[in-house]
Design brief:
9 helices, seven-stranded parallel beta sheet, alpha/beta, single chain
Length: 269
């Protein structure tokens, strides 16, 4: 039986620190793409993490190569794209999964830290897309899928608490980085559509991941879940279907969209 991504080359920009257990977006999305017939280029800041995921991806039937990737470095992003072309001859799908969340420092409200988060979560997405887009433009087709978050819309109560406790304005670092991701998605879609390239994003909600457990207390997680329509916390795996839809031909007429996968939280306001 053929898969939805048979023969496609999928590049993933980060598998993250949970990669050993396979419960990150990058790791799960890579394995799901492999099961659908894709060949993978798996990137990460730590080559060892990328290698583990590439090996695990190969075990489910997909051909994969690992690469060290610093998304804030134009040279590193160019090398990542060049490796994919040299190994497989094309990049059909780019999964921009690199993002700071597990290690986000919510107690650091400085301008310097705001710049750091924006650089990694937002500008890094632009840097890697800029390295990959020319290859897609030459072939006049491709899919770019960006990892966003409901943090782009939902106001965390912690911001008000910080302001009340310190008499200072919080830097909104994570939220602003995701607002930037959504804006980049729309601007890239509008620009690259003429080359047959679709650019969309996925915005997960409260996902039971190591990062969410570290960043949000059990009480906070329960409060967010209670505000959702489905009244349950989600798993990273709940986003796989949206990724495969956007990566496959099923979404060829869809671009510039942010798919919210949050159990019905944002839509309830």
């Amino acid at each position: 039986m053929s898969g939805r991504l048979d023969g496609k080359v999928v590049a993933v920009t980060e598998v993250g620190e949970e990669g050993a257990e396979g419960r990150t977006y990058g790791a799960l999305w890579a394995q799901a793409a492999a099961r659908e017939g894709a060949r993978l280029v798996v990137g990460d800041r730590e080559l060892s993490r990328a290698t583990r995921v590439a090996e695990r991806t190969g075990a489910v039937g997909g051909e994969a190569v690992a690469a060290a990737l610093d998304v804030t470095s134009e040279a590193s992003a160019a090398a990542f794209a060049d490796l994919a072309i040299a190994r497989f001859g094309a990049i059909d799908v780019l999964l921009n999964t690199a993002h700071l969340w597990l290690d986000i420092r919510r107690d650091d409200q400085s301008a310097a830290y705001l710049r750091q988060v924006i650089e990694y979560n937002g500008i890094g997405m632009w840097i890697v897309s800029s390295a990959v887009a020319p290859h897609m433009m030459q072939r006049r087709r491709g899919k770019i899928i960006n990892l966003s978050s409901i943090g782009a819309w939902v106001q965390s109560p912690r911001y008000a608490e910080i302001a009340a406790a310190t008499d200072k304005l919080p830097n909104f670092a994570y939220a602003l980085s995701k607002v930037l991701d959504n804006g980049l998605t729309r601007f890239m879609a509008a620009t690259l559509g003429q080359f047959g390239i679709c650019v969309n994003a996925i915005a997960p909600g409260i996902i039971l991941s190591e990062g969410t457990v570290r960043q949000l207390s059990a009480t906070e997680r329960a409060a967010w879940v209670e505000r959702s329509a489905l009244r349950r916390i989600l798993d990273v795996g709940d986003t796989v279907g949206a990724m495969l839809f956007l990566a496959s031909g099923d979404s060829d007429a869809m671009t510039g969209q942010v798919l919210v996968v949050d159990g019905g939280l944002v839509m309830l306001g």
